[in-house]
Amino acid sequence: MDYEGRLGNVAVLGAAGKMGSGIVLLVSQEMADLSLKPENRSKTFVLHAVDISHQALSGLMSYLREQVRKGAEKKIVALRAAYADRSDLVDNSEIIDAYVDRALDIVRPTTLIEAAAEAGAVFEAAPESLDLKLKLLAKCGGKGPKGPWVFTNTSSIPICEIDEKAGLGGRVMGFHFYNPPAVQKLVELIRAKTTLAEVAAFAEALAKSLRKTVVPSHDIAGFIGNGHFMRDMLFGMAEAERLSKEMPFTHAVYCVNKSSQDFLVRPMGIFQLVDYVGLEVCQCILKVMDPRLPGQGLKSALLERFLGQGVKGGQNHDGSQKDGFLRYEKGRIAGVWEPEAKRYVPLSELQVDCDKKLGPLPEPGLAWKSAVKHPAKDKALAEFFCKLAGMKTLGAELALRHGSRSKEVALALVSDGVAARAEDVNKVLLTGFFHAYGPVNDYFQVKVAK
């Protein structure tokens, strides 16, 4: 494996998108760092940032300039050593400017995908559509084992399918960054049976150099992360529909969302997480997984209904949250969508009643932020959930059912061969989803009726 050789000429497809821009940032900095080595000073490093919009690519370059500068400020000691032979660079600001210029000189924004054909490595960050990915990869250096090594950021499409249908001859691997790539430590590496050993070795070396936490997943639709999240999401939706027979639908959504956050000690409730990811993205993932995993019921009429009403969630360009199942004001939940009336019911009209129905949290409380920083986290969580198990309230019931189902899903991912070990599932949820604890634990023992 020629690690530095492959990183001499790189292309990122979908470079101006949310995932692509983060990949460009990470890889361009790695390439800039390599170019500063004495033995590489005479070499040329090029990263083709490919996207369909000149305007979006202009925005990408502005984003890169800002983020590379922040990164340079954090590693000024290393940069001082790298630029030790430059007598013209004295102040830290001069060294930082030089590094920023070097990193941005490496990036070549373009709308011409043909630029990827001569790359040594191609990172594909297109939306979760097999047809779109195949269309893009068809223009990346021809078929067979010769040509660029392809690293797809797909979060659900089996790599073996991409390899077979694109005719890549084993030069492809799943390199699933989590959103946002520049911040998230987790990377799922998915090796197909056909993936060449040298391609896998390169992926592992790059992930290590980027200081990522690597979890291997077997090549089964959804992999570990979405394999758990999609089923967790579907359970949450089913719970809301079950509860809606006893209370208004908006109340049911609120109760399930709050129980899956506060009572389960998670960073977000399940509906807030769906909104963050985006309903359209979740639907795309289900459409990948359902036909490839027949008989598991990986589909949602509720998602279809909401999308049909124009309820989409997702993120604005500035990172603020779009309305989805829930309405947001200044980042806080302010309402719940009522599909019959096609409007958001303000939180003020349901919160008091719902909180009364849910009942209190165990005392002392254990918020997610406190849990992740707790010096005796495992003990604190065990005591919290032990008390929760002894409470006969709706909030406790919902949380225990949801936690138990989450554990069942995680164990099934191991038994079905998606994850090699339960520890790998836990690591994905801890690292990629920022949970305070893994789904495979001793906190939940309730058998969930499906």
Task: Walk me through what this model shows.
The protein has helices at 3-6, 18-35, 54-74, 76-82, 92-106, 130-137, 159-166, 197-209, 225-243, 249-263, 270-277, 279-292, 301-308, 351-358, 368-373, 377-389, 394-415, 422-431; strands at residues 9-13, 46-50, 107-110, 121-124, 149-152, 172-177, 186-190, 213-217, 326-329, 332-338, 343-346. The termini are far apart. It has 450 residues and is of the alpha/beta class. It is built from 18 helices and eleven strands. The protein folds into two domains: 3-217, Rossmann fold; 225-431, N-(1-d-carboxylethyl)-l-norvaline Dehydrogenase, domain 2, CATH 1.10.1040. Helix 9 (225-243) packs across helix 10. Strand 4, helix 6 and strand 5 (149-152) form a beta-alpha-beta unit.
